[in-house]
């Protein structure tokens, strides 16, 4: 119904209004990128300034006249607003300029519809589209003003508008039911990973920050990555091996954007659950973008909205290959904990530093010390070797074994518990 659409290449006029209220401010450059990502052909942009939107047309009558002229002059097929319009505003503008009108929310939904590949992704997009459409249904079926009441039906029948709304409600209910099954399946997978104590790393960030490129670089995967907004829509999970941690799950998620439509956030809650339940969030930031601070704020707002603002977070400043003189590095806080990594996912510079920072953030309880074992404790020695925890070993003249051991403290405690050995009997010498 929504997904078999060709690359349209429709001639589009863009409309951007600078608002004095910064909370509703948008970026005209981002609007152009969104339009291009949707397959439109932006041929002109109408820019103006307003204290507040006009209730009837959103823009003033003067700008409406300019827009009508631009549409006629360029033979435009669609007008795209960089703002959310009410259903009445969209209809009023369409009626005045005799051209199809799309607002920012509708444009983002259109891009999502093109990019959805998995069954779950398509269900989530369709749900968001249906809920968006349900507020915009108007009576367009005057030739079917009333359906006839058939045998067994009372009254004059439903209007076509009522029928459309009833069908939409039924479809929305069906999709909610299917997504609930998907949510339960994902929850089972998360519970099994938690039982196995496998940490999850979730890539989050503004759209087109380079999350999928970084994902491919770390996992050797082949996830679609392109220099366009919302290149990734469906979540992808891959297993990675970390030096001190062992196996971990890396999740690539949908990018965020300024004023991400609330219906999309709701529809993608099953997908975003990977972010909420992550052990560590990797916030990928386009370090070269002049609007990066605003993008950071927007991502933090969405994380707060989905309830993930309390999850530990490591900032990843990407695309330093576009910044002359910028070298890969790790920034730390006053306690020496990594808080920010500068790298380039495209060239691979700094990836080793990122893995080092992830290891440090996930292994704040690493046991890296010397254990002195007697010849009778060969079973413990074998278990440590089986874990790959022994870095080096020396044996003295009395046959005592001195092992340099590095592993997570919880893993050592499990070994000792399995062998029935009391932890306090070992004199531990910390390595400096």
TrEMBL record:
Query: So where does Mg(2+) get bound?
Result: 212, 232
Q: What is the annotated signal peptide range for this record?
A: none
* All residue ranges annotated as the Hflx-type G domain in the record: 199-366
Q: Which gene encodes it?
A: hflX
Give the highest taxon in the source lineage: Bacteria
Q: Which cofactor does it need?
A: Mg(2+)
Which HAMAP family does the entry mention?
A: GTPase_HflX
One Gene Ontology term of the molecular function aspect: metal ion binding
Which residues make up the binding site for GTP?
205-212, 230-234, 252-255, 318-321
Quaternary state and interactors: Monomer. Associates with the 50S ribosomal subunit.
Name of this chain's protein: GTPase HflX
User: Which InterPro entries does this UniProt record tie to the protein?
Assistant: G_HFLX_dom, GTP-bd, GTP-bd_M, GTPase_HflX, GTPase_HflX_N, GTPase_HflX_N_sf, HflX_C, P-loop_NTPase
